[in-house]
């Protein structure tokens, strides 16, 4: 069996995929990768028919080895990576051979890096997903010495690929859509909210991320409000009027008022904002946010268009003849049906 | 439900592929009934393109497939239904399933039972009879997977949350506040009052199904001695002796 061995875990490592949508009525939130864009970029880089499970690495990676040759994609927050001490490019695919040591250090910007084996991770599924959901005890943090079962990589000799990642690792402007409670906040409060530079607070995890500012943003309706359905992207105002953006492992029902919902395209910016990063919000109308929306399949196709073969100077490649110099030619239709279920 | 409760249902966006039908901002009983009725109707006969239906206390979230319907088309359909329900509130829909769940009331299993009985000016025995005497309904599931909000209890059970949190109630704790019951899936801190303990586990990942309760299910508690609950807790199914009847 092909295995990816965690020789040493330095960051918080979990297996993540697109999560488990469709169980809100039973109180289970979707979960899955904090930065879905990183999954889609790995899908495109590896030429996979659909997003594959990845090892999500919070803040830092660790040291890894393999039992069979396999390609891996490195996406999400750029981290310092080496293969047997040779530097590896981030936002790219690489072949790892048995006996080699892949080392992934701390994030240079952003928080969540992703290590995606081309053959997929074959750990047991629960409700159709392999995603670790820490808050409810599904799966757990990967530990040093643990082996992750993987599928075989049938194209381990495919040409290495690189991708121009969507910029999302240094904060900036985040678009939010109007939600069911936006109008409970006064026009003045909304205006102040949209005019504020927020700082990503130290408090944040897979459930949610707190934002700091001098100002406070509350609504007089907060007290008697009935609990309602909540989800990733919702910007909740706690009792103190401090915003808290709900993330992948949030609860499904909540009583705090929500000023809006970060659009899915921009949620990775929140996920990847390291503590201290500045974030601002821009409010979209429902029509605007609906028009911007892209399906997972279309996002993956878009990522594929940002991929190219890694061009290297042949004179610097010691084992040039071991490379298959033509590869990765397909009918080009494999992305049409792909999406997270 | 009093007749002067006026409901003004509205449709709101909830992300790019979902909308929310809301009957009121606050948890008034009429709105809760209306949300139950709408959720049950939608469950029975989902509009084209709807992929997920999730009821909260006074609202229902509908997720839809944008390739099969549009926000405006779905909003029109559902708003008509919601307005009809609000205009002439029908009786809560008949339950499709009923769970009968044994629970040990009072004493260590329900430290607040005597206090509640005092507040209601009835005996603890009568309080237990009130809880066990009727079918209650799962209004919504949330806070933790599978964990139900059950209601509504009679009006005199409109007890405020305690200002002092109880640091920990055990898994299976049956707690009450604001005319509702929560049955905890795991040990938890709570500001609600514990009246009983069951051996029913609302979430066990390895059980099939992991989260057995569904919104709309009828719940009937039946008083059982503590020794029986302890014995039922040893069953590996985690159902704590609960019986499920399919009614329709």
Automatic annotation (TrEMBL), chain A:
Keyword Magnesium annotated: no
UniProt keyword list: ATP-binding, Hydrolase, Nucleotide-binding
Matching Pfam families: CT_A_B
Stored SUPFAM superfamilies: Cyclophilin-like (SSF50891)
Domain Carboxyltransferase: residue ranges: 25-299
Keyword flag Nucleotide-binding: yes
Protein name: Biotin-dependent carboxyltransferase family protein
Organism: Paracoccus onchidii
Lineage, highest ranks first: Bacteria, Pseudomonadati, Pseudomonadota, Alphaproteobacteria, Rhodobacterales
UniProtKB/TrEMBL annotation, chain B:
Sequence intervals crossing the membrane: none
Pfam families documented for this protein: CT_C_D (PF02682)
Keywords noted in UniProt: ATP-binding, Hydrolase, Nucleotide-binding
Gene3D superfamilies membership: 3.30.1360.40, Cyclophilin-like
Residue ranges of domain Carboxyltransferase in the record: 9-213
PANTHER family: 5-OXOPROLINASE SUBUNIT B
Protein name listed in UniProt: Carboxyltransferase domain-containing protein
Taxonomic source organism: Paracoccus onchidii
Lineage: Bacteria, Pseudomonadati, Pseudomonadota, Alphaproteobacteria, Rhodobacterales
């Amino acid at each position: 069996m092909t295995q990816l061995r965690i020789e040493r875990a330095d960051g918080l490592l979990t297996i993540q995929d697109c999560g488990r949508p469709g169980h809100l009525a039973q109180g289970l939130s979707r979960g899955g990768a904090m930065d879905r864009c990183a999954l889609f970029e790995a899908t495109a880089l590896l030429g996979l028919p659909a997003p594959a499970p990845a090892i999500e690495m919070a803040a830092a990676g660790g040291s890894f080895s393999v039992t069979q040759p396999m390609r891996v994609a490195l996406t999400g927050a750029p981290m310092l990576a080496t293969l047997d001490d040779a530097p590896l490019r981030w936002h790219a695919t690489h072949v790892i051979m048995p006996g080699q040591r892949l080392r992934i250090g701390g994030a240079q910007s952003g928080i969540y890096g992703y290590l995606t084996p081309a053959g997929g991770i074959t750990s047991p599924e629960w409700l159709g997903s392999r995603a670790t959901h820490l808050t409810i005890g599904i799966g757990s943090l990967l530990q040093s010495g643990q082996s992750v079962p993987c599928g075989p990589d049938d194209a381990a000799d495919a040409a290495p690929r690189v991708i121009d990642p969507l910029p999302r690792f240094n904060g900036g402007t985040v678009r939010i859509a109007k939600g069911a409670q936006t109008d409970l906040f006064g026009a003045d409060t909304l205006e102040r909210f949209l005019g504020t530079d927020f700082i990503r607070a130290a408090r944040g995890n897979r459930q949610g991320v707190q934002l700091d500012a001098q100002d406070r943003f509350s609504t007089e309706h907060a007290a008697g409000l009935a609990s309602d359905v909540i989800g990733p992207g919702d910007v909740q105002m706690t009792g103190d009027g401090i915003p808290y953006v709900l993330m992948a492992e949030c609860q499904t029902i909540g009583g705090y008022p929500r000023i809006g919902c970060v659009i899915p395209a921009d949620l990775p910016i929140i996920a990847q904002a390291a503590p201290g990063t500045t974030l601002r919000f821009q409010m979209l109308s429902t029509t605007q946010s609906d028009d911007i929306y892209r399906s997972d399949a279309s996002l993956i196709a878009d990522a594929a268009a940002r991929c190219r073969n890694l061009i290297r100077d042949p004179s610097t490649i010691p084992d040039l003849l071991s490379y298959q110099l033509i590869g990765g030619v397909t009918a080009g239709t494999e992305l049409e049906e792909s999406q997270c279920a | 439900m009093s007749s002067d409760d006026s409901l003004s249902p509205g449709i709101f966006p909830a992300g790019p592929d979902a909308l929310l039908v809301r009957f009121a901002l606050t948890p008034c009983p009429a709105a809760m009934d209306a949300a139950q009725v709408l959720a049950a109707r939608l469950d029975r006969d989902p509009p084209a393109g709807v992929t997920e239906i999730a009821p909260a206390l006074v609202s229902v979230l509908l997720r839809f497939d944008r390739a099969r319907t549009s926000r405006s088309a779905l909003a029109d359909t559902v708003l008509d239904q919601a307005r009809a329900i609000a205009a002439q509130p029908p009786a809560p829909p008949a339950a499709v399933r009923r769970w009968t769940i044994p629970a040990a009331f009072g004493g260590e299993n329900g430290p607040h039972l005597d206090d509640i009985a005092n507040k209601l000016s009835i005996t603890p025995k009568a309080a237990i009879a009130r809880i066990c005497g009727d079918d209650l309904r799962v209004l919504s599931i949330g806070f933790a997977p599978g964990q139900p909000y059950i209601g509504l209890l009679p009006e005199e059970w409109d007890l405020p949350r305690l200002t002092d949190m109880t640091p920990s109630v055990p898994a299976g704790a049956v707690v009450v506040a604001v005319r509702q019951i929560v049955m905890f899936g795991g040990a938890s801190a709570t500001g609600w009052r514990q009246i009983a303990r069951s051996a029913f586990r609302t979430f066990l990942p390895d059980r099939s199904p992991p989260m057995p309760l569904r919104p709309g299910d009828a719940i009937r508690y039946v008083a059982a001695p503590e020794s029986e609950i302890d014995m039922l807790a040893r069953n590996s199914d985690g159902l704590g002796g609960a019986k499920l009847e399919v009614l329709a």
